[in-house]
Amino acid sequence: MMWKSVAIVVTLLLIGCVESGSPTTELAPPSASDPQYQVGPFSLTERSGKTITDQDLHGSVWVASFVFTRCTGPCPQVTATMARLQSELKDVPGLKLVTFTVDPSRDDTAELKRYASHFQADPERWLFLTGEQAKIHQLLREQFKQGVDQKMGPDVKPGDEFEHSTRLVLVDKNGLIRGIFSGIRNDSMPNAAEQFETDLAGLKERIHILNK
């Protein structure tokens, strides 16, 4: 199946949110692995002010992404990819998209509402979650197995305060992670546009399979 060629090895590789034009870390090579490990429990606040837990997503196939709203690097590309999924999979019943901010001290519910509105995010299908930074970063590292780190020092520029995974994590109806896919086009790789579209097609195919 196509998804087998595009699921990504579970890794703590960081794809940093960096200034436009700066180099980014190369993607890990594709793998046929299907991780099948539990996301596990979490409780965070949605842009609506409602508390969302892992149990609220139980029974739904969902895709997770990780961004921060003032990011000047690839975060807008990641969110645009999620917007494509929202549009192109609008007829898939029960599918949820879930965006976690890695900068919750700035990304409160009001800021997430503004950001979500910019991408025309359907509040019934696409959630934006915030909470305590330590809790969210621990969730990314220990439960999603994705890298995240806050940059420190006087040379850190606004919009470049965090580096973190730009992957999309696919979760099944039982809370099992079933694939990790590229959220952005990596222009440092050969045939970047074609590879990204292949990966995205594989993600969509996998969603349809899991949603049966």
Description:
This protein is α+β, with helices and mostly antiparallel strands and 212 residues long. The chain has five helices and ten strands; from the N terminus they run βββαβαβαβαββββα. It has helices at 54-57, 75-88, 109-118, 133-143, 192-210, and strands spanning 37-38, 43-46, 51-53, 62-67, 96-101, 126-130, 148-150, 162-164, 167-171, 176-182. The strands form two sheets. Strands 1-10-9-4-5-6-2-3 form an eight-stranded mixed beta sheet, sandwiched between helices. Strands 7-8 form a two-stranded antiparallel sheet. α2 (75-88) links the parallel β4 and β5. The radius of gyration is 16 Å and the shape is globular.
Task: Give descriptors for this structure.
two-stranded antiparallel sheet; 8-stranded mixed beta sheet; 21% strand
Name the helix and strand elements from N-terminus to C-terminus, one letter apiece.
EEEHEHEHEHEEEEH
Query: How many β strands by DSSP?
Result: 10
Radius of gyration based on Cα positions: 16 Å
Low-confidence stretches: 1-32
Q: Can you count the helices?
A: 5
Q: Mind describing the biggest β-sheet?
A: 8 strands, mixed
Strand order of the biggest β-sheet: 1-10-9-4-5-6-2-3
Termini distance? 16 Å
- Mean pLDDT score, rounded? 85
- Principal-axis shape equals globular
| Estimated structural class | alpha+beta
Relative strand content: 15-25%
Helix content: 25-40%
